[in-house]
Amino acid sequence: MKFYNKLISWYLQNKRTLPWRETKNPYFIWLSEIMLQQTRVAQGLAYYLKFTETFPTVFDLAKADESTVLKMWQGLGYYSRARNLHYSAKHIANELNGEFPSTYKEIIKLKGIGDYTASAIASICFNEPTAVVDGNVYRVLSRYFGISTAINSTAGIKEFKTIAQSLIDKKQPGTYNQAIMDFGALHCKPQNPLCDSCPFANSCVAFEKKLTKALPVKEKKIKIRKRYFNFLVIKTNNNKTILSERKGKGIWQGLYEFPLIETEQIINKNELISNQYFTDLFPNETTISLFNKKEIVHKLSHQHLYTQFWIVETKSLENATISWESIQDFPVPILISNFLEEFQPKN
């Protein structure tokens, strides 16, 4: 039996029931694929349902303010996905009259879409035989064929794409692509794969040679950068604070944050108040307390943020114009969102 026949047979018996599998609308497939990058299905599902209810068409998403889109995305992380999604929605709505591109070559031109997403949309919506290669697919193929080429190397990316393309069922490429992704997620799992009940057990190299735990191979990650953040959580007598939009191309672009002092290491109260930015910001007397007694470590893909939230109470402050009652309306990083859930300012 051919690889794709055995795989699709497994899929038809075991596939997950998911809302984006009930449609061929490329807008909905696109949304789901972007959301599920770096995100588990269990977490992404609620966001998908909320997004499609709020923005039922690409025109609705295109008309929204970026701040609204980022607020809806809050908690999913990797916010460039949301900004690119919004940018491409405006392009489709305004430049393409709402018509989603229908070929891999055109789809991949959209901002924020790479090979994997373009292949998924082209195959599922337009029946184009373009194979997807994501973490699940790398795992299945590396184990089945016993491939030790690093999946995050240039050679590995090319090799696995070629193999994936050679295996695809050209008559039903969308079904095949969803089948291999589900098989990797549910059966050929990273930890404790279900090898004893695997339909490929008699032909899987990793199973035969006991290499399951060793595959797939990844090159070592780049060095993690440590950063030290001190957020100044301001509260005036008339219950106002400061939030500002984060600019530039770094983390959290377009999200809002409290005034921030970044330092070379964890600092204490005396070091905080002697910082030039602090003295410039607060000309009047302040009362300062540290909210979290131990720094919060927020881990991003290439950096770890060691964070302290300093509660700074002052009688008045010219730049403090945002009411604490409205603070939940602003899109903020999950690090600050978690803080706001715990912190209850006294009126």
UniProtKB/TrEMBL annotation:
Record's keyword terms, sorted: 4Fe-4S, DNA damage, DNA repair, Glycosidase, Hydrolase, Iron, Iron-sulfur, Metal-binding
SUPFAM superfamilies in the cross-refs: DNA-glycosylase, Nudix
UniProt KW DNA damage keyword: yes
EC number: 3.2.2.31
GO molecular function terms attached to this record: 4 iron, 4 sulfur cluster binding; 8-oxo-7,8-dihydroguanine DNA N-glycosylase activity; adenine/guanine mispair binding; metal ion binding; oxidized purine DNA binding; purine-specific mismatch base pair DNA N-glycosylase activity
Enzyme class name: hydrolase
Matches recorded under Pfam families: HHH, HhH-GPD, NUDIX_4
Top-level division of the source organism's lineage: Bacteria
Domain HhH-GPD: 35-186
Recorded catalytic activity of this chain's protein: Hydrolyzes free adenine bases from 7,8-dihydro-8-oxoguanine:adenine mismatched double-stranded DNA, leaving an apurinic site
Cofactor comment: Binds 1 [4Fe-4S] cluster.
Cofactor(s), names only, from the UniProt record: [4Fe-4S] cluster
GO biological process, one term: base-excision repair
Signal peptide coordinates: none
Free-text function comment from the UniProt entry: Adenine glycosylase active on G-A mispairs. MutY also corrects error-prone DNA synthesis past GO lesions which are due to the oxidatively damaged form of guanine: 7,8-dihydro-8-oxoguanine (8-oxo-dGTP).
PANTHER family: ADENINE DNA GLYCOSYLASE (PTHR42944)
Family designation: Belongs to the Nth/MutY family.
Name of this chain's protein: Adenine DNA glycosylase
Organism of provenance: Polaribacter haliotis
